Amino acid sequence: MDDIIIKLNYLIPVLLFLANLITANNVHIDKDFIERDVIYSNMIEKSGLFRVGDILLLVNKIRVNTLDGFTWSANINGLSSFQRQNWIILLDGQRLGLNTFNNVNINMLPINITQIDSVEIISVPQIYDGIFTNYGLIHIHTKSISNGKAMTFFQSAGNETGDPGPYIYTKYKSPNVEIVGSGTSIVLDVSNNKHIMSVGINYEGHTLTDWAMNNRVQNIYYRSDNWIIPELYPNPSIEKTSAFLKLKTKGIKVNYEFFTSYSRSNKYFLFFNPLGREIPMDYIIKHIGINNNFTISENMNITYRLHYSNNQFNKYPNSLDIDFDWESNNLHANLENQFIISS
Fold first, then answer.
1. Are 277 and 307 in contact (CB under 8 A)?
2. DSSP string, 169-184
3. What is the 3-state secondary structure (H, E, C) of 217-277?
4. What single-letter DSSP state applies at residue 17?
């Protein structure tokens, strides 16, 4: 008769938000039993998607909505509405605090879509790595090399076209669209099996072409973002630059992961509900985190995770002279003790 292995986990997720401290005890379910959908890199490549946020379009269980094509609202668990954007994003096990002003902008992640190896989508409330996924969770895993050195350069450009169609001579006509957006990334990977390092920088440009949005924006921000030939690029645009550093050490008893990143859109258009319009701002996200796993014996190991994120909305010049001057600090900690009883 085969041995029966029972896994019991004592889980202590700790969430600190500013001065608040919450502790709870939960039963951890092994990942083999987690209900999830998975998107792999070959599916993303064949789809021709351009930005990280576009992966939301590949999942049938996710309802999505966007005003500008850069900031996406998503309904992942089928229960919450677009007004409750509390879903969680993990990047290689790191919980990045992208939740700002009821927004979860997945395009502010410090990676390019070509760096994605797979994406897990958790749409059913459950415990995942010590996190209760009541509003849904997306875990993005990036590519890595097993041994050696590699430098990857990626350059892309996508053209958005659109014409007024049959409404050109009516009041329902829309402006003609002929806009090219670009993306650039450089990633350096170094690995010798035990130690892994990955460092990269990314740039993305996104032009706002929605006519209704442009009508709202032009009263407080109206100028071309191209100083060479402004007539060719009359629309405002969002530009994001980011950088990340990932270190990983694999040992017999200890596995250690360190990750830090910086993302900035120095002109980000946030739709502010009280005013019913977009407000330009300087949007910055900083993150630093560690994941450690200690093997005590064949039947016991301890895992702890500590993640800190800082989000800022700073002023960008606008005719309304609106300055949010807003900052959020998020600290998430988790301690897990797992042991196996075999009989």
1. no
2. TSTT----EEEEEEEE
3. HCCCCCCCCCCCCHHHCCCCEEEEEEEEEEEEEECCCEEEEEEEEEEEEEEEEEEECCCCE
4. E
Per the structure block, which two tokens stand in for 254? 């200890």
**Residue 152 backbone phi and psi in degrees, to 5:** -120, 130
Give the helix/strand (H/E) hosting 200: strand 195-207
Q: What is the pLDDT of residues 68-83, one digit of tens each?
A: 878 888 888 766 666 6
C-alpha–C-alpha distance, residues 43 and 54, integer Å: 12
| Confidence check: pLDDT of 121 > 70 | yes
User: The tokens of 119 are what?
Assistant: 């994406």
Distance CA 200, CA 113 (A): 13
pLDDT at residue 307 in the model: 94
- Residue whose pair of structure tokens reads 């290689």 in the numeric block: 92
- 32-36, 231-235, 298-302, 327-331: least confidently modelled range: 231-235
> b/e per residue, 124-140, with b = 16+ CB within 10 A?
bebbbbbbebebbbbbb
Place of tokens 């993305």: 204
CA 203, CA 184: separation in Å to the nearest integer? 5
Burial class (CB in 10 A: 0-12, 13-18, 19+), 255: middle
Bridge partners, 242 (sequence order): 202, 263
Structure confidence by residue, pLDDT tens digits, 317-326: 888 888 888 8
Residue 30 dihedral angles phi and psi, to the nearest 5°:
-60, 145
Give CA–CA dist 110/286, Å, rounded. 10
Answer whether 165's CB lies under 8 Å from 177's CB: no
Model confidence pLDDT, tens digit, residues 140-152: 999 988 889 999 9
Cβ proximity of 336 and 298 under 8 Å: no
Q: Residue 116 is encoded by which pair of tokens?
A: 């994605």
Cα 35 vs. chain centroid, distance in angstroms? 21
Domains of the chain: 5-342 (2.170.130.10)
Which tokens is 281 given?
């701002």
